[in-house]
Design a protein that fits this description.
242 residues, alpha/beta, nine-stranded mixed beta sheet, D-Maltodextrin-Binding Protein, domain 2, globular, 38% helix
Length: 242
């Protein structure tokens, strides 16, 4: 009974807060950046994250504009206040980007993995990369911060460039996210490249906002939890699972 009472009080507070904040966003777009690719984000804004973000902000009656930018610029624009939010990133980036704040309810789990032509390679942790020539996309912070043991390293600006490196045998291993890697290989009809088990890391991925929007973070967190509780979240995710 007490829990129900507290829950009702919280909902009343959320509704009151929405009423107060509505004028801030009612006549303008909340600009949200992403560097994500299919299946997570698409040019037609119907990827996994896109649908979650659109449904989330729609529940708060906030109009959004989603921009697709390069990874480094995507987050930096939010940090300097050019844009309002960015998705999806690992937690802990507020120390590096002083003007952003994390929405502490994850969008999804990412599997950061290694791909190679040689399926016999065993990768169990970051240190096991030390015997190989590696490559990854510039701006992917988890790789920049952890992949510091290698024979050589090449940074590229796109997944197309990344997979061309491994196809042309310029590197032994490329580092990428599991489902994005599979999606790219399927669309480009690339064969003979394998994901090396197990993932180097499995991380929750989050939405970040510029610090000027700190006051709506509790609303965003609660909105995501409500989506998950009602089943809307699972409905979106299941449409992308083979």
């Amino acid at each position: 009974m007490r829990l129900n009472f507290l829950f009702n009080i919280f909902n009343v507070a959320v509704i009151f807060f929405i009423i107060l904040t509505a004028p801030l966003y009612g006549n303008e777009f909340f600009t949200i950046n992403t560097a994500d690719k299919p299946p997570y984000s698409t040019p037609s804004i119907n990827g996994i994250y896109d649908q979650i973000i659109l449904k989330l902000f729609n529940s708060l009656e906030i109009k959004v504009q989603i921009n697709h930018l390069k990874s480094a610029r995507s987050i930096e624009n939010v940090n300097v206040g050019i844009d309002d939010a960015e998705y999806a990133r690992i937690e802990g980036l507020c120390a590096q980007y002083k003007n952003i704040r994390m929405v502490n309810e994850k969008l999804i789990d990412f599997e950061f993995t290694a791909f190679s032509k040689n399926s016999a390679i065993t990768i169990t942790n970051w240190n096991t990369l030390k015997d190989y020539h590696i490559a990854f996309i510039r701006g992917w912070k988890i790789y920049e911060n952890n992949a510091d043991a290698f024979k050589s390293k090449i940074l590229v600006s796109s997944e197309k460039d990344l997979f061309q490196l491994i196809e042309k045998d310029r590197v032994d291993i490329i580092l990428y996210e599991l489902l994005r890697g599979f999606d790219h290989m399927k669309k480009q009809n690339i064969n003979g490249i394998f994901n090396l088990k197990a993932p180097l890391s499995v991380r929750g991925m989050y939405l970040y906002v510029n610090k000027k929007h700190e006051k709506i973070i509790p609303l965003l967190e609660n909105g995501l939890r409500v989506m998950k509780k009602k089943g809307d979240y699972d409905t979106i995710i299941k449409t992308f699972i083979p």
